[in-house]
Write a structure and sequence with these properties.
With about 100 residues, the protein is mainly alpha-helical. It is about 40% helix and about 5% strand. It is built from three helices and two strands, in the order H-H-H-E-E. Strands 1-2 form a two-stranded antiparallel ribbon. A hairpin with a 2-residue loop joins strand 1 and strand 2.
């Protein structure tokens, strides 16, 4: 199925793209090649092969979510520029009335 220059111009118009005459001429064969490649992939797909989201099987690479003891609060806040009531003190960024 050949893609015509007029079809490319119509696609450009629908996409609100302004293409020059040279761009229209260059894009027609490129779009035709893309559509041909998609058609070839459709031909290869077989009914007995289940669809997949990845080419190779994936496994969970995350460690188990296990609670562990953390650093003491005093040690953590020792490196902070400012602390108050056992928390980091940071400059206010929002207006209190918001």
């Amino acid at each position: 199925m050949a893609i015509t220059r007029d079809e490319v111009a119509n696609l450009a118009r629908l996409s609100r793209m302004s293409l020059s005459s040279a761009e229209l001429d260059a894009l027609a064969p490129q779009l035709e090649a893309i559509i041909g490649a998609v058609a070839r992939v459709s031909e290869v797909a077989a009914a007995d092969i289940p669809p997949t989201s990845h080419a190779v099987p994936l496994t969970n690479v995350f460690r188990a979510d296990v609670t562990r003891p953390s650093l003491p609060v005093a040690d953590v806040l020792a490196g902070a520029p400012a602390a108050e009531d056992g928390r980091f003190r940071v400059p206010r960024i929002l207006d209190p009335e918001e």
